[in-house]
Amino acid sequence: MIEVKGLSKSFGAVRALDSVGFEAKDGRITGLLGPNGAGKSTCLRILSTVLEPDLGSARVGGIDLKASPLAARRVLGVLPHSSGLYQQLTGRENVEYYGRLHGLGEETLATRVDALIERLELGGIADRKAKGFSQGERTKIALARALVHDPQHLLLDEPTNGLDVMATRHLRDWLRELRGQGRCVLLSSHVMQEVEALVDELVIIAAGRVTLTGSPAELAQRFPGRSLEEIFVDAVRSSERSAA
Amino acid sequence: MNVVFTVCRKEILETLRERRTLASLLLGPLFGPILFTLLINVMISRNLSSIDEVLEVPVLGAEHAPNLVAHLRARSIEPLAHHDVKDVEQAADLVARGVYDVVLVIDDAFDKDFGTDRAARVALVFDRSKSRAASRVSRLRDAVDGYGRQIGALRLVANGVDPSLSQVLVVDELDVSTPAGRSALMLGVLTYFLLFATLTGGLHLAIDTTAGERERKSLEPLLTLPVARSSLIVGKMTATVCYMLASLALTLVAFTIALKQMPLEQIGMSSTFGFATAALAFVLLAPFAPLGAALMTTVASFTKTYREAQTYLTLVLLIPTLPLAFATMLNIEPAAKLMWIPSLSQHLLITTLIKDQPLTPAFVALSIGSTLAFGALLGWLAVRLYRREAILG
Q1: CA dist., res. B66 & res. B191, Å (int)
Q2: Which residues pair with B102 in a beta bridge?
Q3: Which of B68, B122, B228, B324 is deepest in the core (most CB within 10 A)?
Q4: Chain B residues within 8 A of A45 when measuring between CB atoms
């Protein structure tokens, strides 16, 4: 469970987040949806404790981020915007490095890594240097890396970026599987169609504010006769008007 | 501690696999000794030439002064049998163009003036900016002067005057430099090569710690791990220090081997630089590695990309040369008040070592202690900078 209350963050004169609040429940996939520059990445970076908010608070699994960031990082798995793999290390070594930094013992680590490599069908590339990986392979390894310590919460920043159709389908399957395991999955995207079929909850964010929340079904009920895409576009427009 | 070890091990492994970084690691250890060998060999050949070699000099107007020419011949200065010098202007031109190092021009009126109360004239044509020719010029000048003095003394005797009357002063020169001490001047450059190699050994990793990870977008996920940022950066700096020490050790070994091949005795110098000295030099220079690692990491943390960091760090590589330049220019002697300055203190201690003089334990302790303290201070600064949000760029 991720709880966000009144998060604000400015970079100089630019107000990236303005009192953002929402919840992402366990066993659900929550989509943080918004146009480019809406503040999605800033929000996820605060949740992954890389940035500190100016105002507001956030709790991950009941752990306050500000009070105990290290404890919060233990229950968080993060797939950042760019995979950021170490080119000279093999896929397996990349995953192992993070496992060790999470403090996993060598035996647990070996078991976890083997299981992840099998589940993500990484057998063919696991022992190759990350240098030559395709975008899809990079994302797979980065996902394995994010899951190596078996986190309850998963943050994914535009995970389908640059993936082809097949890789996107695979990714969706894995995310559904993680949801099935009762995990809390929070992902960001700027394309409504991409998340429509996947997410249970939508948090639409524009110009640093939350403009609309609800499940796709709820939203369809509240705005009868309009597609989710139209609802998204309307919400973004009205929010940007009020901000300007 | 575990985190520091994990990070350090990964950095060492990753760097080891990168060809570019391995090349730069080997560059320092090879570049120094090769350049140094060339330098020494040039010096040796120049020194030898002034002692044994027959100096061939074009002499214009040799027919006017056969006795002078005979005097020069007796001192292994051989007038060139055939040369194309016709007058003083042409001699000047040929010297300026580097055809000859020096030309002796004997005045047309030499034989007429010689033996009268007018001084006979000769001219030396040379280029003072050409240091290679300096020893030849002074050899020729000494020989010509000696001839003049000899004839002068004979004339005084012929007139019943004791020639020693005209000699008011006798200057005795006592050169107290030991053979090892003489080589110290040249080997002093050694400290610079050693410090330079130490720094270049860690250059890549120091950049990679901040700018490199940022550019490859691997910094952000790294910072989401449940480990203190201070442990991450200390691990990275430890790996940097490991590479710097490896580079230093390699350079010392290369120098030791190179110096053993050099005919230093031929020019009256002895080098005591054996493997035992090299080991001691390693101990004296090793404390500079943490300082350099922290300095480079701190500077690199302000930059956005690998290239930008490289530009700034090239300037950082010049920093250790500043105290060395002053020390060489001012001919500074080791003193307690200088031992707290990193790089200068290492230079003075290494110079002492090469001169085969005893090391003062207090100086050594002061140098090591102060260098490590500066390193700790800069390391602390690097950790502080790593904690900023701006580190993400």
Answers
A1: 52
A2: B126
A3: B68
A4: 220
Three-state DSSP at A110 gives: helix
- The 10 Å CB-count burial string (b at 16+, else e) for B274-302 is eeebbebbbebbbbbbbbbbbbbbbbbbe
Domains of chain B, by residue range, sit at 2-45+179-392, 54-166
Q: Among residues A218, A78, A5, which one has the least CA distance to residue B219?
A: A78
| The pair of three-digit structure tokens given for residue B196, joined into one six-digit string | 């330079």
At A75, which amino acid appears? Answer: V
Nearest Cβ partner of B226 from A52, A73, A84? A73
Identify the closest residue of chain A to B8 by CA–CA distance: A97
- Amino acid letter for position B302: F
Distance of residue A226 Cα from the nearest chain B Cα, in angstroms: 39
The alpha-carbon gap from A89 to the nearest alpha carbon of chain B, in Å, equals 6
Measure the CA–CA gap between A80 and A44, rounded to whole angstroms.
Answer: 9
CB contact under 8 A, A103 and B226: yes
| pLDDT classification of A147: cutoffs 50, 70, 90 | very high
Round to the nearest angstrom and report the end-to-end CA distance of chain B: 28
CB-nearest to B218 from A85, A101, A146 is A85
Q: What value does the mean pLDDT of chain A take?
A: 91
CB contact under 8 A, A98 and B219: no
Q: Which of B3, B224, B231 best tests the A interface by mutation, with the highest count of A CBs <10 A? A: B224
Read off the pTM: 0.77
Instruction: Tell me which of A17-31, A34-48, A123-137, B83-97 is least confident.
Output: B83-97
**3 state SS of A87:** coil
The CATH T-level fold of domain B54-166 is abc type-2 transporter like fold (3.40.1710)
Which tens digit of pLDDT belongs to each residue from B122-142? 889 988 887 777 778 888 898
**Nearest CB partner across the interface for B226, out of A45, A74, A84:** A74
Cβ-contact A190, A224 below 8 angstroms: no
Q: What is the mean pLDDT of residues A31-55?
A: 91
Residue written as tokens 């995310």?
A: A175
Whether pLDDT at B267 is above 60 = no
Residue scoring higher pLDDT (B338 or A43): A43
- Which is nearest to B286 in space by CA: B186, B375, B204? B375
pLDDT at B86 over 90: no
Query: What ipTM was assigned to the predicted interfaces of this complex?
Result: 0.90
**What's the first-to-final CA gap in chain A, in angstroms?**
33
Instruction: Please write the tens of the pLDDT for every residue from B136-179.
Output: 888 889 889 989 888 888 888 888 888 888 778 888 877 665 55
